């Protein structure tokens, strides 16, 4: 099994997959060698299972007119499957051509050339913090309808229970992305209804990636990404500017996840 095949399998499985299931689809040693690549995979323990989450440094270009960059030139709403200009007479400002020369070059550089639009969407949603609103941390503090969130119903962040994303929770806070405030917030960001049903997986994976200490320096903070979107006046694609599985069982608790600290082991080829 190749690395690109592993990425495709994970992205077709809501962006993460149990290690045991992945091993069942390929050679044991090959799978463990492949997922030891921390630039493309994060291994964590969630819900009592060892899981692998797909990771990428590739992002979507947000400029209407780009002078050249290393980001995908693709319409954000087309990626999400909701661009109103896909079948209309008016032409979209942004490209709907996933396989353009520019995009193909980048996809190949990142080992993502085998992904279709839906699989690529899954991967980018959980990696590019600009594409989705962050969870409101103030909502998750205190009691009351809005917790400690001062913006209340006007908050542009998601009012969703963080504990629910990490496991089972029976508190009174919102656990469903279809509840009024989360639904309104997501619709304002152009997230189509079919995608909303998958967002628990997306945000759970985002938490796993955010908790991965080795990558924190490369992650855009969700609050800054949200502020950039709110202040944008150039449309939905605008940016502010254009593992080897453990032989050791040493673990670290991070935001409800148990991350494995790997020791290198020699694998027989």
From TrEMBL:
The keyword Zinc-finger applies. Keywords: Metal-binding, Phosphoprotein, Repeat, Zinc, Zinc-finger. PROSITE patterns: ZF_C3H1. Residues 210-243 are annotated as: Disordered. A zinc finger (C3H1-type) spans 74-99, 130-162. It comes from the Eukaryota. This is C3H1-type domain-containing protein. GO terms for cellular component: nucleus. One of its GO terms (molecular function) is zinc ion binding. Residues 74-99, 130-162 form the C3H1-type domain.
């Amino acid at each position: 099994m190749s690395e690109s095949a592993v990425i495709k399998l994970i992205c077709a499985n809501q962006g993460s997959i149990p290690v045991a299931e992945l091993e069942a689809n390929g050679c044991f040693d090959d799978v463990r060698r492949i997922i030891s690549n921390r630039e493309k995979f994060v291994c964590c323990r969630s819900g009592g299972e060892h899981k692998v989450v797909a990771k990428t440094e590739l992002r979507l270009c947000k400029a209407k007119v780009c002078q050249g960059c290393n980001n995908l030139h693709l319409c954000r709403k087309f990626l999400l499957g909701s661009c109103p200009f896909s079948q209309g007479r008016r032409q979209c400002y942004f490209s709907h051509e996933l396989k353009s020369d520019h995009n193909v070059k980048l996809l190949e550089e990142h080992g993502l050339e085998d992904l279709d639009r839906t699989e690529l969407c899954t991967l980018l949603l959980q990696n590019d913090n600009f594409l989705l609103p962050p969870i409101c941390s103030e909502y998750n503090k205190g009691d009351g309808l809005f917790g400690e969130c001062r913006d209340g119903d006007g908050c542009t962040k998601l009012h969703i229970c963080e504990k629910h994303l990490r496991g089972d929770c029976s508190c009174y806070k919102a656990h469903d992305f279809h509840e009024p405030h989360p639904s309104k917030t997501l619709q304002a960001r152009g997230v189509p209804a079919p995608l909303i049903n998958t967002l628990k997986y997306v945000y759970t994976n985002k938490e796993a990636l955010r908790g991965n200490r080795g990558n924190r320096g490369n992650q855009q903070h969700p609050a800054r990404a949200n502020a950039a979107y709110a202040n944008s006046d150039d449309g939905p694609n605008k940016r502010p500017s254009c593992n080897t599985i453990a032989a050791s069982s040493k673990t670290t608790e991070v935001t409800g996840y148990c991350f494995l600290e790997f020791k290198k082991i020699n694998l027989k080829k």
